[in-house]
What does this fold into?
Amino acid sequence: MASATFRIWRGERGAGKFVDYTTEFEEGMVVLDMVHKIQANSANDMAVRWNCKAGKCGSCSAEINGKPKLMCMTRLNQLDLTQPVTVEPMKTFPHVKDLVTDVSWNYRVKKKIQKFTPRPADAADGTWRMQQADVDRPQEFRKCIECFLCQDVCHVLRDHDKHDEFIGPRFLIYTAQLEMHPLDTGDRLKALKDDFNIGYCNITKCCTKVCPEEIKITDNAIIPLKERIVDEYYDPLGKLFKMFK
Amino acid sequence: MASIDVPLKDGGFGSTRRTDNWWLEPLLIFLGYALFLGYSNYAVFTPMCGPTQPCYEVPGTNYLSPMYSPLLFTSAPSWWPGFIPFSAAMLILWAPAGFRFTCYYYRGAYYKGFWADPLSCAVGEPGFRGKNYRGERKFPLIMQNIHRYFLYLAIVFIVLLTWDAWRALWFPVAGGGEVFGIGLGTLIMIGNPILLGLYAFGCHSFRHLIGGRKDVMSGSSVTKSCYDCVSHLNKNHMKWAWISMFYVGGVDLYIRLCAAGTITDLRIL
Ligand code: SF4
Ligand code: SF4
Ligand code: FES
Ligand code: FES
It folds into this structure.
């Protein structure tokens, strides 16, 4: 059996260090398997959050060789095992212990966004009618598993610490999902511009690159929202045109 | 168990634990744009290839360099300030340049390649911006929101370049008049509006205006098909952005070399 070295960040509340663990591995293992094996054999007190091991719960987010990834979806054969593999917690959220961070800021952000506000029901039995073609767009965003890897990599949060002003890519797609929904009657454009500060996003697409659900966050959610804001606030000719229509 | 002391978050410029070639993409973007900017400056400020021979026209043909199209003035108009060297390209090139400068793809790319904001994903930024970061929320970058106006101009330019390609099918004859013909230059010029179209009609603003602005598109099959078609081009927007940009430069270069007599245009028909 071959062995590999995992360089795992150990510590509490941001203070700590990398510790090297050399462990044997088998074909088909993922990083989370290795972390579990190390936890079982040599580091019983190592904190790691996980749940489904199937890339669907969004719990096991970490940075593997510096890249935000799900530990359970990163197979060892995708990594160069001749060098130590670094595994560290996400950088954009307060650190708790070892690989675990406190992501509760995200839940607080979500509460600020106006909820789904459907129009009155279409039929007497309280149901609605809509076309699949019209919900295709919101459905792409519903694939989100809230792993918050996109929030972690976004430089507005990661490097510029704009947590108070910017909601981050995860919640921009959430807002897009509501705004583009054929039944929704809410209007979140003013909030997007002034409170959620979509203007901080400079469309550099790191969020799209890390999303394990391969949601085209920037192209399909953020830019279309920016365009809707242009309609409303930065397109005098378009406004004039609409007035005469 | 060896251990290494490093802070969890160091964030200095260029700091990262990434082990792949993260610097390659911003470097290629930087070099690609620098090359194109360098060439277009040369092309704009070198309008003459001989005492009376402009670089943007080829004798015996109706070819016109896309960097000089539409040719509004062949010499400096009276209102042109004397201290600025005159080039007909300067009067028109701001429109396609503005279109590309405000393009969502280019923005994302040059913010990385030229301003290191961020340099690359999960790589530390220069520290001076820190919390003072303004993004596109405030002046000056809030001006990027005028992109759709440049799109309207770009569509006009596609029409003009299509006209130029049509003109390239006609060759002046000695006694006066023109005959139909095809040269290598003609074929090259026909490619130009096609590639620019593939780029411009995949524009995010166009995608929005054609249907994306609506929540319900299923009501009109025309809207829906246009939107799907634009979305398809939009997926390849980056590719067409690069190809069409270098192609424009290539067309100018071909015409310039023919004008200077370095090469002779191959007449096919
Ligand atoms: S595209 Fe925008 S939201 Fe996504 S990572 Fe970049 S700045 Fe953040
Ligand atoms: S958008 Fe993608 S990266 Fe972001 S939280 Fe959802 S699944 Fe994770
Ligand atoms: S453990 Fe559920 S996503 Fe990895
Ligand atoms: S977004 Fe690239 S041309 Fe409009």
User: Anything to note?
Assistant: The two ends of chain A are 73 Å apart (CA to CA). The first strand of chain A starts at residue 2 and ends at 12. The mean pLDDT of chain A is 97.
